Amino acid sequence: MPGPTFLTRIQHTIGRAFRETGQALDRVGIRGTSHAKTKRIQGDDPYIFSDHLSRHRNLMPLLHRGDPAVHNGAAFIAPCSSLVGTVHIGEGSSVWYGAILRADTCNMSCGRSREDLEGWRAMSKEERGLTDKDHFDSGAGGGIFVGKGTNIQDGCVVKSVENHTIIGNGVTVGHCAVINSAIVEDNCMVGMGAVLNPGSKIETLGFVAAGAVIGRDVVVKSGELWVGNPARKMRDLTQTEKEQLYFQADEYVKKGIGQSHSMELGSNLGATLVEGAKTV
Question: What predicted TM-score, i.e. pTM, was given to this entire model?
Answer without folding.
Answer: 0.76
